[in-house]
């Protein structure tokens, strides 16, 4: 019972951290603000997450769990291009999560950022997953002649780049439609 309550409390803290990071960025987010949102003191929060970095990693891991339906990144083995389009649709319904992820990703490129290693490893894994998705769809060559490994970073860049554009101008950028247009480019002429 106590363990279940502790896990529930950790979940509340992570959700509050997502909100605070979305509003202020990682560097602008304080443990005190997160603690206040869940009715704890900063010391009380440190019982669950001993450092701000530990909380950040929990936020990033939770975001990945949401994206894979509650499972691990290994669940991405079942991705197909049409399911990636569904993920883009899903992201368009949760701007706070996308904003948090994008803020952390942008900040992580700076030296010494605690999420840098997470994102470096995550992108290596995602590029591999996207290459597998492309290989399953097209075989060893896309209609353009690119290999899945050559196109995987482009697919990943389009997904994340569209998120930034959509966050900045949601009334001008239809993220799901733009992603589907990109899939049309990948598939080539005559491929629906």
Automatic annotation (TrEMBL):
- What is the recorded name of this protein? TetR family transcriptional regulator
Do the record's keywords include ATP-binding? no
Any single Pfam family the record assigns to this protein: TetR_N
Q: Could you tell me which residue ranges the HTH tetR-type domain spans?
A: 7-67
Concerning SUPFAM superfamilies, the annotation shows:
Homeodomain-like, Tetracyclin repressor-like, C-terminal domain
Q: PROSITE patterns attached here?
A: HTH_TETR_2
**By its UniProt entry, which PANTHER family does this protein fall under?**
HTH-TYPE TRANSCRIPTIONAL REGULATOR RUTR, MYCOFACTOCIN BIOSYNTHESIS TRANSCRIPTIONAL REGULATOR MFTR-RELATED
DNA-binding positions = 30-49
Q: Repressor: is it a keyword of this entry?
A: yes
What keywords is this UniProt entry annotated with? DNA-binding, Repressor, Transcription, Transcription regulation
Q: Which InterPro entries match?
A: BetI_C, Homeodomain-like_sf, HTH-type_TetR-like_transc_reg, HTH_TetR, Tet_transcr_reg_TetR-rel_C_sf
